Amino acid sequence: MISRRIPRLICTNKRYYSLKKLTCEEPYPPRVFSGIQPTGSIHLGNYLGAISQWIKLQDQNEDLILSIVDLHSITLPHDPKKLSRNILELTATLLGCGLDPSKVILFQQSMVSAHTELCWCLGCISTMARLAHLPQYKEKSANLKNIPLGLFVYPVLQAADILLYKATHVPVGEDQLQHIQLCQELAKIFNNRFGQTFPMPHTLKISNEYSRIKSLRDPLKKMSKSDPDEKSRICLTDTPDTIVRNIKKAVTDFTSEVTFDPENRPGVSNLISIHSFATGKTVEQICKEAEHLDTGRYKFVAADAIVAYIKPIQESIAQYLDDKGYLLSVLAEGGEKASEIAEVTLKEVHNKLGLRVKYRDSKTHAKSV
């Protein structure tokens, strides 16, 4: 059995996140909800743009609920065995990065059936026209001959994920802003029709300089798990040789100097940003230290720094993966905690919708079902 308190490596660079203590209007206490799909290995973009922010919130003692949103990951064809494996690997990765299940609620979405039930309730106040206009639906369905219903109602399930826990804040990137706006609309419609039930969730924008780490192969796009080119990203589970290879193959430009200019030199600037996070050095320091290097030789310096930064995280992940029983217990305990909150909300929703009818038993005492 491994320790629940494996040390983690956290960047202490004060330029990273500057989140203030969250506040919210009464009667809803501040609560943060976020989710992550188990669709592949976590890469540096995920880590810098999301997971590190969650750890920051955790260390600020915020009320934080994190879900491995496996139901979202089956909206398109998938391999069931791979999905099961990914769920455990993602759990190990999150713990290895520093998330502490004694401080946050970490659970598997499908273990809490209230998500899909609330999705149905919210779907009944949504319109097809509104959902069809969402950019992500248009993008993902563009090349599909037969569009799955799950892909169409994906944003409604996402809204249910958030509202089920009466979350007041949701960390989001730019590509999810319109889905949060839909969630806000559904909360407002429900409250107006059936009485005050949900808080208005606020976006907690990911606005630090590392929030949009770019693809190594196309620095005009963000780093993505779905990119078919494995050399486009650095995964937390990559071997040192793989990291060096991918950095070496990273697209830069024809200028040999190492300078930071995101607009005109996005490729090399992307490497400098990653290097900066891994070492805590400023981009100015990095450029000064690399002034006698060309970009080709600089890539090896950056790769070595990234390998050194990721190594303790990888060791921690490996320890967790060696104890699958513990990973399952974390998800089970998190599922129980999440269910307790979810069932209270769902009962309230049932009451507001008129679904909890009363009847009289043989002793003529009123009961609700």
TrEMBL record:
CDD domains: TrpRS_core. InterPro entries: aa-tRNA-synth_I_CS (IPR001412), aa-tRNA-synth_Ic (IPR002305), Rossmann-like_a/b/a_fold (IPR014729), Trp-tRNA-ligase (IPR002306), Trp-tRNA-ligase_bac-type (IPR024109), Trp-tRNA_synthetase (IPR050203). GO terms for biological process: mitochondrial tryptophanyl-tRNA aminoacylation. One of its GO terms (cellular component) is mitochondrial matrix. The keyword Transmembrane helix does not apply. It comes from the Eukaryota. Catalyzes the attachment of tryptophan to tRNA(Trp) in a two-step reaction: tryptophan is first activated by ATP to form Trp-AMP and then transferred to the acceptor end of tRNA(Trp). This is Tryptophan--tRNA ligase, mitochondrial. It comes from Ceutorhynchus assimilis (cabbage seed weevil).
